[in-house]
UniProtKB/TrEMBL annotation:
It comes from the Bacteria. Residues 210-222 have a biased composition (Basic and acidic residues). Keywords: Acyltransferase, Transferase. SUPFAM superfamilies: Thiolase-like. Residues 9-253 form the Thiolase N-terminal domain. Its EC number is 2.3.1.16. This is Acetyl-CoA C-acyltransferase. The keyword Transport does not apply. Belongs to the thiolase-like superfamily. Thiolase family.
Amino acid sequence: MTESRPQAYIVDAVRTPTGKRGGGLSGLHPADLLGDVFAALLDRTGVDPGRVDDVIAGCVAQMGEQAWNVGRNAWLSAGLPVEVPAVTIDRQCGSSQQAVHFAAQAVKSGEQDLVVAGGVEVMSRVPLNSSGDPKLGYGYPFAGAGWAKHYGDQEIHQFRGGDLIAERWGIDREAMFDLAIASHARAARAHDEGRFAGQLMEAAGVTADEGVRRSSDRDKMRSVPPIREGGVHNAPLASQIADGAAAVLVASERAVERLGLTPIARVHTATVVGSDPVLILSGPIPATRRVLDRAGLTVDDIDLFECNEAFAAVVLAWAKDLGVDLDRVNVNGGAMALGHPLGASGARLMTTLVHELRRTGARYGLQTMCEGGGLANATILERV
């Protein structure tokens, strides 16, 4: 269908709306939310669930209702075949993007033909930082003799990382507000124009992303206090805590042909990098450089970008360093408007990107996101 080397195709992708903390999705068990997405994905594609070789789910806070392999629990909660295995992975905010990478790698290796990759996070029920919060009686993860030897006892936190990036890359705070306002405006437009219609499924009666603001008051946004004392980021300049799930069906060329499937795109190139764990969130810069280099492409070759809006400065520093035109970035809004349900966000961005490639007829899309621990994934998709 494309080249002689093995390919991994995205047949379809679906997501729930993102629910606000305490909002319309907060009453759902994470396994039910993700299970419904799995079932919807298979129903949309017409694929027999028993033909799926593996299920790979991303989730960050794997405790409580999200513990004990929530990907497997979700599959079973949906009444899908017990013979199909599942695994849950944690690459922090990039967990479900990494799930797609692992799925594509399994398919390209020839070991598997159909893999469901996705993720879930119901942050209303399993709060941010639950799995490493000393207040809950757990030890602090960034500690121990080895860690202290290399990084001392300095504060390691995403909020500090976002502020450090703003300082190091010289990001103007008003430019951050510009980006936040644009994120909400683009997300509202996407809903109004039906751009999300092909990717959204109803969940608990919720049919639209709950965090999108129809208008933004810059002065009111400025008046919100910073997240950390002395910092530049406040809540309007950060991703919203959210609930949600998303899933992608990845197929081999053999499966596409035998089952008569019609793919939307292929996973052209995928990579992951490590970066400074103190800055934490700068990884999308080297990840984007690496994936472009491996693909033999340049920034100018990419039609659409999805860069996760963990914090406004992350996207602006990435775009500044790489020379990316913001008019091609998060064209239907980002996490400041749509929310960031941690383990689901990678698959959510992938879903949004692949459907926008199909809607516009664009050829290449690039997705990247920063991740806890100083990590970042990057993926290039090519529409077929």
